[in-house]
Design a protein that fits this description.
Blueprint lengths: L1 H13 L3 E4 L2 H15 L23 H8 L4 E4 H8 L7 H9 L18 H25 L1 H12 L3 H5 L3 H15 L70 H8 L31 H20 L6 H19 L3 H4 L8 H25 L6
Parallel strand pairs: 1-2
Helix pairs in contact: 5-6, 7-9, 7-12, 10-11, 10-14, 11-12
Length: about 375
């Protein structure tokens, strides 16, 4: 109880703007909150910048209660942020410390923690281990650039910074589109509640397809189920060892490019009231139709990124300026590449299965045409 009171008072005196930790939101702070309740710690109101008279009800989700308690402070969870910003098979602190920082984190057996309290030496080791974990989390946050990158993403989308830090990717897209449609004087749809049957995005092999698949949704079932519509074209690989020259062809942001090329938007594609199927897709908009909100938004993001990348190549640019521009171009890239995702994500305000189906269908057609050109005109073996 005394230790918990000391932590609360220390946070009040230091008054940090941001708290950084690895899996801090769903583990460390959750445990801290439960121990505060259990030990009836009176100084809990000092954790945040708003003085509450009583603890928020625990019937609400623990994440929401933690946000209420730490109101006025941003929570930077390197575990959640790494899942979006780092390509890795494992997202444990030891794994990320090795891959991103080239540092080794000693593995501690959680079940033996009580034994470390038996003597001074082992207790000091435990304290040093804990301090090292805090430093690794901070170094990881700085290495990946979580704080400045999340700030840029928030500026682009116009949502709340703490929501960006907590990995609310579909919400970022939603806010971005809300602002765009509001500026164009459109009335936007209400959010739907589709229940437990969640449509799963099918990754089309480029442009951020399926990026929203792992986002936590209340009442959502496992995402490991059959997709609600056909995704990208996946050719059966020809097994073997290829020791000659291999030519790798990759489409530059396939889905965002398709949206711009064919002017696919809520405002341009005629959608019927009945459900479309993969064999009965909506028609592509006529070329005489003005550019829709979605293609215009994507074109703007792409143009801004191109402009930022050109600034990075200028002479006389300092290292700090280069780092800042790198953060800006990465934020623009992440935003543009994830825009397709909100079309096929059933919990999105802008869920439009017909548009998502049309985009993936054009993607399959383009990929198949490319295969045929490579085989018939270039006489290449596609593996």
């Amino acid at each position: 109880r005394i230790l918990l009171g000391k932590i609360c008072k220390m946070l009040n005196v230091l008054d940090p703007d941001i708290l950084i930790g690895h899996n801090i939101l769903n583990f460390d702070l959750d445990i801290l909150l439960n121990r505060i309740k259990e030990c009836k710690c009176e100084d809990w109101a000092r954790l945040g910048r708003i003085k509450f008279s009583q603890l928020p009800k625990s019937s609400i989700s623990s994440e929401f209660v933690i946000k209420q308690l730490f109101n006025g402070r941003l929570i930077c969870d390197t575990y959640l942020a790494s899942k979006e910003l780092v390509k890795s098979k494992l997202y444990s602190l030891e794994s990320l410390a090795h891959s991103e920082l080239n540092l080794t984190r000693p593995v501690l057996d959680d079940e033996r923690i009580v034994e470390y309290y038996q003597n001074i030496d082992s207790l000091c080791y435990l304290i040093n281990h804990n301090e090292n974990d805090s430093l690794l989390s901070a170094k990881l946050a700085f290495q990946i650039g979580i704080v400045p990158l999340s700030k840029q993403l928030t500026i682009l989308a116009g949502n709340l910074w703490w929501r960006t830090l907590n990995g609310a990717r579909s919400e970022r897209n939603e806010y971005l589109l809300l602002h765009e449609f509001h500026n164009a004087k459109y009335i936007v749809p209400d959010k739907r509640n589709p229940g437990k049957h969640v449509a799963v995005l099918a990754d089309g092999g480029g442009g951020g397809g399926g990026e929203l698949e792992n986002e936590s949704v209340p009442g959502a079932t496992s995402s490991k189920r059959k997709a609600a519509y056909a995704g990208g074209l996946v050719l059966e690989p020809k097994k073997g060892l290829y020791d000659k020259i291999i030519l790798l062809l990759d489409f530059n942001s396939l889905y965002p490019s398709i949206i711009q090329e064919y002017n696919i938007c809520f405002t341009t594609v005629q959608r019927a009231l009945h459900d479309f199927s993969d064999d009965n897709l909506p028609n592509l908009p006529d070329k005489s139709i003005p550019i829709g909100i979605l293609p215009k938004l994507l074109a703007n993001l792409v143009a801004r990124r191109r402009q930022v990348k050109s600034l990075m190549k200028e002479n006389g640019i300092t290292e700090s300026q280069l780092h800042e521009l790198e953060i800006r171009q990465k934020a623009l890239k992440l935003t543009a590449n994830s825009m397709y995702g909100c079309l096929g994500f059933v919990y999105s305000r802008f869920y439009a299965k017909e548009l998502a189906m049309l985009i993936t269908a054009k993607g399959r057609e383009i990929l198949q045409n490319t295969v045929e050109i490579a085989q018939q005109q270039c006489h290449l073996d596609v593996i």
